[in-house]
Amino acid sequence: MGNAVLDTKTSLLREHPPSSYSIKFENLTELNDDKYESSLFAVGGYNWRLVIYPKGNAKDEGSGFISMYVEIESTNLLSTPLTDVFAYLIFFVYNKKADKYFTIKDTKLKRFSSLRTVWGMSQGGQCEFGVDVLVAPSLAKWEVVSFNQKIPNPKFSWTLKKFKELKEDSYNSDNFLVGGRQWFLKLYPNGDARAKGKSISIYLTLRDAETPNVEEKIYTRAHLRIVDSRGTTNHMSGTLNYWYTKLNLGFGWSTFASLDKLREAYLDNEGSLNVEIEFAVVSSTKYSPSI
Questions:
Q1: Are 199 and 259 a contacting pair, CB within 8 Å?
Q2: pTM for the full model?
Q3: 78, 127, 155, 224: which has the fewest Cβ within 10 Å?
């Protein structure tokens, strides 16, 4: 095992004994072994042992002192993927004269891993020893957000025939699948309530079945365009950047394009309006099971 010494320590006397584990030697001078390993004790779901070097750990510059370490049972760390355990350590030495415990606490969180199973102190006192192991809880809630920029079939085209003759307030495109989500375009040929008679309004909307969870967000960046029927690249276009949530399933433009300009130059020979949307990014998020 590899030993590692506490590096940022604070010390004080206290009356309360250790709560994780304690070893009392009736006559430490009779112990001729180089080290003493305690029985295993459980803290934070892991098994530990207290290791005492009564003559000091010479490999850790502890000769002439008593050295103390905490070792985690290595089988706790051999899961896949390999486990790291973080803990604060407080070492105790009983001061008989003061009838109190001299404590040595490391102020930095220690990382126990398969490469480093032991932390402790190379220079200590004698007779009664103990330790408090305060294990930092394992990560219980998490999320991993991915921004997918390699989207299969990122483009969707929609043709509204005889655009000037459309009578309904709004029209929905067919559903289309992009980034693992079902979407549709919603278009107001004469403008929505804020753009009535002046501009077309158009929105990219998630299907109700794709409604995110309460805390979930879906980031989308997409380029929307009204195709120039004259065959040029002078399309009417806009870029959408938006986080879709449970309360906001649609986003777009109330005044995307002037109706006068659109009717003059952007309808094809059959009077149809051609709309395209191309996705650049759709995010996906993995959550801890409790969401």
A1: yes
A2: 0.60
A3: 78
